Amino acid sequence: MAGKTVLADELALEASKSGRQIIRASADDFHLPRSQRYKRGRDSPEGYYYDGFNLSELADVLLRPLGPGGSRVYRTAVFDWRTDMPVTEAPLVAADGAVLIVDGRLSLAT
User: Fold this and answer.
1) 79 and 27 Cβ atoms separated by less than 8 Å
2) Is residue 108 in a domain?
3) How many domains, in total, are found in the chain?
4) pTM for the whole thing?
């Protein structure tokens, strides 16, 4: 486990004391398939940055639904990088006032 995950898990544990629903997600569950991630080479920094994650899907199924005016119907994963297979997780519905905590490499990159 990397520091980002430990921090997010500990933050979620503390936040759960508020009594609000805590939704815990990781950008690692929004990778692209290996064939796309490694098209510039397995050790390519540009490939990691530009081709590593499905950021549009992360926004579409997690961030926008849980954002202002969102439907509150969300998914926390779409792809398992370990098996290189899509995740068939059923959509969930967030409670009013739910808190989303997401960890991810390059989370501040634009």
Assistant:
1) no
2) no
3) 1
4) 0.87
